[in-house]
Design brief:
With 316 residues, this protein is mostly beta strands. The chain has no helices and 26 strands.
């Protein structure tokens, strides 16, 4: 795992520390990572021979990462994030068809899962401002909502929202006020805006746009909402592009434009200020840094070799 510095003026990205995942063995395609709200702890899900969840402490002054330990995971997890309370790591497995909730102790170390549940081809598992959790089913073409039952250490399935066959719901993000969500479908290459019912959490489709109008297929990857909640960004791997959409009332998504990205941009992230995007090329081994203009469109300002098959980036 590499720790990098980003110059806010020039966009230059420099590796300042590299830390191994202790005891990690076997080949691993993709290492999902998550961070806490104050950006002092980082969690990485290893998908090699033994499925492990590693916890790291970030010392900003020393500019160094320190491994705090590791814990078990039930399968090869393709997504990880922290719950809104900051006390749990939520993870999901497409190949293992399972979702998991791992506790975080007072020192910021993640432990073995306290909840696991079957979830068909789950790709993304997040909690929302309404207090519910949502999991996308990449091959089942639905989004499932859940209620946490911490007393029973269980997740109670609630409503299921179906999507067109072979669309491939991949990532879902929620607006800060919880009234709207945005869904990226991998195989259809679509962005869908959804209203979120304040009482039930039920999702209702408001709008849909195609990243590649007229294309037979797509290979969409990552989805990010700008800090100001007014622009939505999505990456597409078959054409290696990042798309920017202006968000309006009633779920309207208006294309601002699309920019070239490093070859196979499986992962990208926005910095907290919303001024820069960092994108990784899974096939090229490159990292590209973009500066976002006033209209919300990224413009590349820097590129560098980052290492073979980079799969996840967190802008801290």
């Amino acid at each position: 795992m590499a720790l990098c510095s980003l110059d806010p003026e020039t966009g230059v990205l420099v590796v300042i520390d590299k830390q191994p995942l202790p005891g990690a063995t076997g080949r691993c395609r993709g290492v999902p990572m998550a961070t806490n709200a104050c950006k002092t702890r980082i969690y990485a899900a290893w998908r090699g021979d033994a499925f492990r969840l590693f916890s790291f402490a970030l010392d900003r002054d020393a500019r160094r990462l320190t491994c705090l330990g590791d814990a078990s995971l039930p399968a090869s997890m393709c997504y990880a994030t922290l719950s809104s309370c900051g006390q749990r790591v939520l993870s999901s497995s497409n190949t293992g068809s399972v979702i998991a909730v791992s506790p975080i102790d007072k020192d910021g170390r993640a432990g073995d899962p306290i909840m696991t549940q079957e979830a068909f081809k789950a790709h993304c598992f997040v909690d929302a401002p309404n207090g519910l959790a949502y999991a996308t089913s990449l091959r089942g073409d639905f989004v499932q909502s859940y209620a946490f039952d911490m007393a029973r250490c269980d997740l109670k399935p609630l409503a299921r929202r179906e999507f067109p066959a072979e669309a491939g719901p991949r990532h879902i993000v929620f607006a800060a006020d919880g009234t709207r969500a945005y869904l990226l479908s991998e195989f259809a290459g679509t962005l869908t805006s959804l209203d979120v019912d304040a009482e039930t959490g039920v999702l209702s489709v408001q709008g849909r746009v195609e990243l590649l109008p007229g294309a037979d297929k797509a290979w969409a990857a990552e989805l990010r909402l700008s800090p100001r909640q007014d622009v939505l960004y999505a990456s597409e791997r078959s054409t290696s592009q990042i798309f920017a959409y202006r968000l309006g009332a009633q779920g309207v998504m208006q294309l601002i434009g699309a920019v070239p990205a490093p070859d196979c941009p499986t992962a990208f992230d926005l910095c907290a200020t919303g001024r820069h995007v960092i994108a990784l090329g899974e096939k090229s081994g490159e990292a590209w840094v973009y500066r976002i203009d006033r209209d919300g469109l990224p413009g590349r300002v820097f590129r560098t070799e980052i290492g073979a098959v980079p799969s996840w980036v967190l802008a801290l």
